[in-house]
Structure prediction request, 856 residues.
Amino acid sequence: MSRITALKTADVRFPTSSSLDGSDAMNPDPDYSAAYLEVCTDAPDGLAGHAFVFTIGRGNDVQVAAIRALSDHLVGRDTAALLDDMGATWRELVHDSQLRWLGPEKGVMHMAVGAAVNALWDLKAKRAGRPLWELLASLTPEEIVALVDFRYLTDALTPDQALDILKRAEPGRAERHAQLVAHGYPAYTTTPGWLGYDDEKLARLCREAVADGFTQVKLKVGADLAEDVRRLGIARDVVGPDIRIAVDANQRWDVDVAIDWMRALAPYDVAWIEEPTSPDDVLGHAAIARGVAPIPVATGEHMANRVMFKQFLQADALQVLQIDATRVAGVNENVAILLLAARFGVPVCPHAGGVGLCEAVQHLSMFDYVAVSGSQEGRMIEYVDHLHEHFVTPVDVQGGRYLAPTAPGAGTEMHARSVTDYTHASGA
Amino acid sequence: MSRITALKTADVRFPTSSSLDGSDAMNPDPDYSAAYLEVCTDAPDGLAGHAFVFTIGRGNDVQVAAIRALSDHLVGRDTAALLDDMGATWRELVHDSQLRWLGPEKGVMHMAVGAAVNALWDLKAKRAGRPLWELLASLTPEEIVALVDFRYLTDALTPDQALDILKRAEPGRAERHAQLVAHGYPAYTTTPGWLGYDDEKLARLCREAVADGFTQVKLKVGADLAEDVRRLGIARDVVGPDIRIAVDANQRWDVDVAIDWMRALAPYDVAWIEEPTSPDDVLGHAAIARGVAPIPVATGEHMANRVMFKQFLQADALQVLQIDATRVAGVNENVAILLLAARFGVPVCPHAGGVGLCEAVQHLSMFDYVAVSGSQEGRMIEYVDHLHEHFVTPVDVQGGRYLAPTAPGAGTEMHARSVTDYTHASGA
Prediction:
């Protein structure tokens, strides 16, 4: 029997603000960071589980402190017992009655639980010798349902309904698995559209995106309407009418402003409007969705938990659902969200970029394709070409598609050298 | 000119779990705790601002780390400049683009901002030589509006509408001020109703509550229906038909369960059902409110920010609004919430108890009475008789009413000895 011996953490920060990579209307100068976790055991296999919470700089130390606060729950525990019943492990961490007070189920403490859960999934997949997406997609419908906590969900999704969804998808699993391995999963790129880039760089990167095989690009908007119109015009000119252009306001607007602004951008054939307002505002997004139809509303990267996603779906407040690998409490909660999306027939287009978010979230979309929604229709994973070199198994995006990972694990392990070199204060 | 010299923090925990004080269906063994903050300056007056975030034990260290992360924003700053424009100070702290990522505007980081904001208000009130409620109620309508960030609120409340509310209340301020000083503000008590108490203790404490002049008591429910029916029967027998009995499920139920459970408790004439389900579930609470009417739904103590309160009001998902002094980003955000409540005509009955929550929140209700809603109708502040002895200016509750505080400050300063004695790990 092996036991968990330590939760090793690191405050890893990359100085991305210097190049304005990642700049948008709400985040003018992010320093992409990872509150990084390594779960160590005394097993002779020497395997460790790796995961992180993505942040954008200041406060990454607070996030690290929150992850460390979970040591008491995990250190000394029987590794296999935790990994064998990940549903129970999730419940134990999320429902610790004292820690729960710090959310509940939101913010720093909830994301810390997500890191712990994701590190355990990474370890479980490494032990199984399979990439996470394939491990998840090998579980029976009953095993998948057992991962999910249906508390607060049953007015929209019951365990029986979830089981039905999974059983409906079961017959086609093998075929879709083969499809994935052969052709990968569609991507879109946000690389051209950061607000801090000048026109020449915007145009050049849009051209390159099309040449690279992407069929959708995304532009940041929301700081200045005239500027947005101008930049959108440049992008549309460069990419032509057949490439989709989504726009992302990063929560900049109030409800009425969002509707007016988007009416001004509508002539440029916008693929979706992302994060028009506060990620907490179910009713506001519903009003915006009605006001800007037929432009779909996309959101989710800052949505705190499955209860928020449930409501956005119930209220038709989003038409494109954007999961994030490190915002909610890890793989289990994202499985719940994928099931909710399938129940409501809404496509999932994950948020990625940042540090390692592409590496992490691709597993969830691929699992969804094989075992949950069974579809790639209207679905794409965001891609940004930042910081992949710091990961042991970086994403492989070719011809505008994520190739299916084959390495064991969840893709979330960083090079030890990167962790050391970019550790805050003591690092390079 | 004086500058802020330090943010001193302490991880203060009281071992309340040993007596089951504070036990409910979701929190079986809370250790009432304070992530405590002292904002020090180099002013010759020697005054400091004190505040805290209330937690229930584990994770209080994470909350302390989050408060400490705000030092870079505040240490070295001109004290008067910060205090003279508390609206700008609030915006600077809440909208720090990197820290914001950790919420946004929710959980550990948001509550940390609340502690900093509240400590500055405590300092501002001490410098003015007035209790906080009186200081706030002395501001002009325009000055009060300037405290509020209307971002994400304008579909429900604009600055002009807020100004109208405050101007309508202006003529009666002096009279209500005198009323408050003479008669205080109504309270209700939760002291009898903790789930861990036996029948004899429940009955005795209910009897004492009535003898002490309280006209409402509150019982914890949600663990076992038959038990709840029995305990509610005991309480109703003891207090008679004229005392209101509220019940509190502490987020235990899903939507359908809440409706069924409350129909079983309805015969006991329930004053309100508090926290029937997840505090994030606007649509769920709206469904419950429709399902259990005419019993009002009360919630708010775990609601993350003003955007959530806005929606609960828009959706008629609560009929009693419960602010909390340390859950949102401090006084300014609670002023926004009081204005929203006034706009929708919903009574505010604050959550209190815990450590120092009574001391803190009474100021907000009293300010509301004088300058915002102008009413005590259907309004009461929760009272629990725990841990007041640790505060320099503890609440004074007599005859079922909070007497108006007269000491300068926000009531949130603890005895230095209490902080030392109960500091975690190094304390007693």
